[in-house]
Amino acid sequence: MSTVELTKENFDQVVTDNDFILIDFWASWCGPCRQFAPVYEGAAERHPDLVFAKVDTEAQQELAAAFEIRSIPTLMIVRDNVAVFAQPGALPEAALEDVIGQARALDMDEVRKSIDEAQSGSAGAETASEA
To answer: Dihedral, CA atoms, 33, 82, 98, 51, nearest 10 degrees?
Structure first.
């Protein structure tokens, strides 16, 4: 499967309709982005069951700003509408495969439970420290 070009118009729909998406934030002038592109495309071919998407940070500045992208390339993985991985820098093929494997292995029920606990725990911690 080829990569999907994400824009502010289609981003929400693509993320909502797919339970596992890799997103490459890139720009055409970025040397490391150009080096990472064939690695990313190769992974897309090896994992046809996953959605590989790209965000051109020059054309989609609002989207890049919404995700606070400060360095490119940045790889993000979204599972079940939860960002489970985000890291700037061009990954070598082996590292990308490792990250994909780790993201596949996540128990999303546990991830959501951890998020809920962290959100309720931080509110409780503020109350406890005031006492």
So the answer is: -60
> 87 with 115: CB under 8 angstroms?
no
* Residue 32 is among the residues annotated as catalytic for this protein: no
Confidence at residue 122, expressed as pLDDT on a 0 to 100 scale: 64
Q: Which stretches within 47-107 are classed as H helix? A: 61-66, 93-105
- The model's pLDDT over 51-97, given as tens digits with 9 standing for 90+, comes to 999 999 999 999 999 999 999 999 999 999 999 999 999 999 999 99
Residue tagged active-site, from 15, 21, 23, 33: 33
With beta carbons less than 8 A apart as the criterion, state whether 26 and 72 touch.
yes
Instruction: State the Cα–Cα distance between residues 45 and 73, nearest whole angstrom.
Output: 20
